[in-house]
Design goal:
Blueprint lengths: L13 H9 L5 H19 L2 E4 L1 H17 L10 E5 L26 H8 L3 E6 L11 E2 L3 E2 L15 H8 L6 E5 L5 H7 L2 E2 L27 E6 L2 H11 L26 E4 L10 H16 L3 E4 L7 H17 L4 H14 L6
Parallel strand pairs: 2-3, 2-6, 9-10
Antiparallel strand pairs: 1-3, 4-5, 6-8, 7-8
Helix pairs in contact: 5-6
Length: about 350
């Protein structure tokens, strides 16, 4: 018989919660109830979870407990409550990316990564807030409003996977699926004190993303889907669930990653690029950057300011902005695109090219 959810913490890493489920120290229904109590208490202020999936989550939790009781073969995420960013198609729920006109459109199918976590037994509690069309450094839109950072409600959790990051940091979910074009997993992970992983291009299927290309599993610049979590072990767990060929696709597919080249932090060398020579940065950012370098040195890492021969960080940044303009520009109206192009030309920005 499972014990009360008081024996586990809402802030425990996902792999710890899964151990508690499998050892029956807590039931999936109890775990879901624990998160729901916290959601009811804290989400009204945070505005992190915006599309509930209550009925299906109840069913998924009960099914997980029944399977656990029978000793049936378990999925990697059986009984784990989690959330999905509101730009990833999730069967039976809207996928709006913060655009009011999309709220009435219900997804008939899961995006491949959503289908993977569902097949692995996860309990999908809700979808989380994002910026409009996932195109900003925060999570605010005309449909659901602003998400706040649980560490400081006057500040943003970052974006565009801000709702998922805030929910994780506040103990409202155990795992989040997000997306990243220009930092949308990495920035909110940093702002909220979490771990996030933007996979290399094409390791995870990228379709079922809104706003996305209509083609099936298109080749896309910059965009990737990936997990956010409270532990790097959880990131590996989530990647193991989501990685692989898409079911039903007649393609040759194999993933083979090289082993880690180092066994400890002190074996690494770190080069600090001289980005401050051309990019104005607030003193707080510089201080944090220098503090990170000092911490690495104290752990035995060889750190120095250096730029690889032939590498121009400013040129790389300008290329990135141009590629990003292509990605973002595809969803703009002709009037908006012309206005932005004119403004960019006046300021000399490469985004107007």
């Amino acid at each position: 018989m499972a014990q009360s959810s008081e024996y586990v913490s809402a802030f425990a890493p996902a792999h710890v919660l899964l151990d508690a489920l499998r050892s029956r120290r807590v039931s999936a229904v109890e775990l879901l109830g624990m998160y729901r109590e916290r959601i009811a208490k804290y989400n009204p202020v945070l505005n992190a979870l915006v599309i509930p999936n209550d009925q299906e989550a109840d069913s998924q939790a009960r099914a997980a407990d029944a399977a656990l009781a029978l000793g049936a073969p378990m999925g990697a995420l059986t009984g784990l409550p989690m959330t999905i960013k509101d730009c990833i198609e999730t069967r039976g729920l809207p996928t709006t990316a913060g655009v009011p006109e999309r709220f009435g459109t219900i997804a008939a199918h899961d995006a491949p990564i959503a289908g993977s976590v569902r097949a692995a037994g996860a309990v999908i509690m809700a979808k989380t807030n994002t910026s409009t069309d996932c195109g900003d450094w925060q999570a605010d839109n005309a449909l659901f409003g602003r998400t706040n950072n649980p560490w400081d409600l006057t500040r943003t959790p970052g974006g565009s996977t801000g709702g998922g990051a805030a929910a994780l940091a506040a103990g409202l979910t155990a795992l989040e699926l997000g997306s990243d074009i220009g930092g949308s997993i990495r920035v909110p992970s940093a702002f909220c004190g979490l771990y996030g992983h933007r996979p290399s291009d094409s390791i995870l299927p990228r379709y079922g993303f809104v706003p996305g290309w209509p083609a099936h599993n298109p080749g896309m610049m910059l965009q990737a889907l990936g997990p956010l979590a409270r532990s790097p072990i959880d990131l590996e767990l989530a990647m193991d669930v989501m990685v692989g060929p898409v079911a039903g696709e007649d393609v040759a597919w194999r993933l083979q990653l090289a082993p880690a080249r180092r066994a400890s932090l002190r074996e690494y060398r770190v080069a600090l690029l001289p980005w401050q020579e051309w990019l104005p940065v607030d003193r707080e950012i510089v201080t944090a950057f220098e503090d990170c370098a000092d911490r690495l040195r104290k752990h035995g890492v060889h750190v120095e300011t250096a730029s690889p021969e032939g590498f121009d960080l400013q040129a790389q940044e300008e290329l990135y902005i141009s590629l990003l303009a292509v990605m973002e520009g595809r969803i703009l109206t002709a009037k908006k695109r012309a206005s932005l192009s004119a403004a960019a030309r006046r300021t000399g920005s490469s985004i107007g090219a």
